Amino acid sequence: MNALAWDSWGRRALLGLLALVVLAPVFGWASGVVGYAEPLENAAEATGATGAAAPVVTGVFPDYSVPGLGAPAGTLASAVVGTALTLALALAVGKLLER
User: Fold this and answer.
1) CA end-to-end span of the chain
2) Pick from 22, 2, 39, 34: nearest CA to 73
3) For 23-80, how does the pLDDT look when each residue is reduced to its tens digit (9 = 90+)?
4) d(Cα 50, Cα 41) in Å, to the nearest integer?
5) pTM of the model as a whole
6) Which of 2, 16, 24, 48 sits 20 to 30 Å CA-CA off 91?
């Protein structure tokens, strides 16, 4: 990757991602304050499908939480891990496409 290109947009992009990761617990708190619920969960409740639902895979971070951590810390941890994995995958694909 061109060093000049990295300096111009890469650093700003990483700072933007870092800001969003740090703000993730605030977004989680705010969603609880306003009573936000996932649209698919709302649709399942409206159709009565929640009683028949059985999760096949619970997920690594169910509901963006980490077992043993409180809600803000769990949200921050899941944001860090999710962002790092997505960034690593995107950079790896980018390197493959550069060839």
Assistant:
1) 11
2) 22
3) 999 998 999 899 898 898 889 889 988 887 777 777 777 777 888 888 899 999 999 9
4) 8
5) 0.73
6) 24
Cβ atoms within 10 Å, residue 65:
17
Residues, the chain? 99
Q: b vs e for 14-44, b when ≥16 Cβ sit within 10 Å of the residue's Cβ?
A: eeeeeeebeebbeebeeeeeeeeeeeeeeee
| Residue from 97, 90, 79 nearest 28 by CA | 79
Rounded Cα distance, 99 and 95, in Å = 7
